[in-house]
Amino acid sequence: MITESVKILVVDDEADIVHLLKYNLSKECFNVLTAKDGEEGLAKIKEIMPDLVILDVVMPKLHGTEVCRIIKSDERYKNIPVIMLTAKSTEKNIVEGLNIGADDYVTKPFSIKVLIARVKALLRGKKEVKNEILKIGELELNLTSREVFLEGENIDFTFTRFELLALFLSNPNVAFSRKDIILKIKGDDYPVTERAIDVHIVELRKKLKSYAKNIKSIRGVGYKFVTEGIA
């Protein structure tokens, strides 16, 4: 059950957007805090350790993409889900946002109901963690500490890519369509593009190095993690 103990930080320089988000998220019993620019947003992230960040892209003082990059490169904050919120809606912009570690990308104008659904889906995924270790060969994923080890080395993963890898390791040799992946790691009625899934797969393969080849593309379907060739 979601309560006011769940802190959401909204970082946006548009007062109307901030008011809209604070009003509607507060109605859902979230504890909503705000910041008016990138520098203030980063300072508040360090101060309050929010459970989720909604982050505008174009802002004064510090660009939203740079704020996201700082969050995802810091061991203390990298597991905080980040939703990028921006008027930049081209595929290039979306891919850039996902590549720097954003967990989701919402374009303006947006449906407040859809945004709230995305917030809840990310928080639900963050809370539903079992005391379990998934291991295939030299690849190990700890669902409790949310750590990934490859040949003994601790590898950093964004929240969404961790969830994606957990899905694959929990279901080796099972093919998932892009829609299946969205439903499994985000929940029902989660409006995200199939292109976003492809971007996450590309970045996941980069992280897995020698195990990248075990994520197979299934033509006309999606992807699966195969155990063939793993001792």
Q: How does this model look, in words?
A:
By secondary structure, the protein is α/β, with parallel strands linked by helices. The protein has helices at 15-27, 38-48, 64-73, 91-99, 112-127, 159-170, 178-186, 194-208, and strands at residues 7-11, 31-35, 52-56, 82-86, 104-107, 133-136, 139-142, 147-150, 153-155, 176-177, 215-218, 222-225. The strands form three sheets. The chain has a five-stranded parallel beta sheet, sandwiched between helices. It has two domains: 7-127, Rossmann fold (3-Layer(aba) Sandwich), CATH 3.40.50.2300; 133-225, Winged helix-like DNA-binding domain superfamily/Winged helix DNA-binding domain (Arc Repressor Mutant, subunit A), CATH 1.10.10.10. A hairpin with a 2-residue loop joins strand 6 (133-136) and strand 7 (139-142). Helix content is 41%, strand content 21%. The longest helix has 16 residues, at 112-127. It is globular, with a radius of gyration of 18 Å.
- Average residue-wise pLDDT: 85
CATH architecture tag of the largest domain: 3-Layer(aba) Sandwich
Helix run count: 8
Task: Could you tell me the CATH topology label of the largest domain.
Answer: Rossmann fold
Give a quick precis of the structure.
Helix content is 41%, strand content 21%.
What is the strand and helix layout of this fold?
Blueprint lengths: L6 E5 L3 H13 L3 E5 L2 H11 L3 E5 L7 H10 L8 E5 L4 H9 L4 E4 L4 H16 L5 E4 L2 E4 L4 E4 L2 E3 L3 H12 L5 E2 H9 L7 H15 L6 E4 L3 E4 L6
Parallel strand pairs: 1-2, 1-3, 3-4, 4-5
Antiparallel strand pairs: 6-7, 7-8, 8-9, 10-12, 11-12
